[in-house]
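User: Reviewer 2 asked us to show a designed sequence for the structure in our supplementary figure. I'm pasting the structure tokens here. Could you produce the per-position amino acids so we can include them in the response letter?
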């Protein structure tokens, strides 16, 4: 049995309700945008869940009613000055979000409002997604920042929507709404906002009552099958985007709340 877990930052909450562990992204005023500390705390929470035999299911949710997670806190990208900063960021994304995917217990993303950028990545790393009717998911970086995604992240998206729709969503920077997400198999269930928490917990309790080793074996089998499509990281693609004038322009335009001017260099 593991000790109780206290996250390193109050921007990420953790609680256990019987066999259900709940991680809450807790920056509602910033639509739960992720800081570096929050990503590390998420990794730590996943480590704890795997050690705690009392936990059978992990639920991830966002505080407030606006967002699950509205990406990474963009102000942090002003720190990027070298190629290594870009490579390290994508490597840490793969490590931290990949840890969600590797949790041995079933994981459920409970999504109200926006799950975009890093938030979409986290949501797709979960096993199941129960969403409110106002849910929107996508990675609009072609419109906002002008950066790129790791191959692991692209593979994660493509495993749900296929190559053609992956390209279309990322090229156009549009978001999937609840109905499209349900039809595409991205969202498992869509419920009214006032029913979201109750339905998510009901599903978690149902799963928690089933044979844990059966569930663990099926989860790991699916993970291994999907992993075959994830090649070694393509550093040249990461550096082409993150070291560009366009990326610097995208960050500054986003923080200034103005449209970016893309120059293709």
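Assistant: Here is a per-position design you can include in the supplement:
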């Amino acid at each position: 049995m593991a000790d109780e877990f206290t996250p390193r930052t109050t921007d990420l909450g953790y609680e256990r309700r019987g066999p259900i562990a709940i991680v809450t992204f807790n920056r509602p005023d910033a639509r739960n945008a992720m800081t570096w500390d929050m990503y590390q705390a998420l990794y730590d929470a996943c480590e704890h869940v795997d050690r705690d035999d009392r936990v059978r299911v992990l639920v991830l949710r966002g505080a407030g009613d606006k967002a699950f997670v509205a990406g990474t806190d963009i102000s942090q990208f002003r720190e990027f000055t070298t190629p290594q900063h870009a490579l390290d960021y994508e490597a840490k994304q793969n490590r931290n979000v990949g840890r969600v995917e590797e949790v041995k217990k079933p994981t459920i993303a409970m999504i109200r409002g926006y799950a975009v950028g890093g938030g979409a990545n986290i949501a797709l790393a979960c096993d199941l997604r129960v969403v409110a009717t106002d849910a929107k998911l996508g990675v609009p970086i072609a419109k906002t920042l002008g950066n790129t995604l790791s191959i692991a992240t692209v593979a994660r998206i493509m495993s749900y929507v296929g190559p053609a729709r992956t390209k279309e969503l990322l090229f156009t920077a549009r978001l999937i709404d609840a109905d499209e997400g349900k039809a595409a198999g991205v969202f498992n269930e869509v419920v009214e906002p006032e029913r979201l928490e109750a339905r998510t917990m009901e599903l978690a309790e149902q799963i928690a009552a089933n044979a844990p080793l059966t569930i663990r074996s099926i989860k790991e089998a699916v993970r291994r099958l999907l992993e075959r499509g994830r090649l070694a990281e393509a550093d040249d693609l990461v550096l082409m985007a993150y070291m560009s004038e366009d990326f610097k322009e995208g960050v500054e335009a986003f923080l200034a709340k103005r449209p970016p001017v893309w120059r293709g260099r």
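For the response letter, you might also mention the following. The longest strand covers residues 12-17. The radius of gyration is 18 Å.
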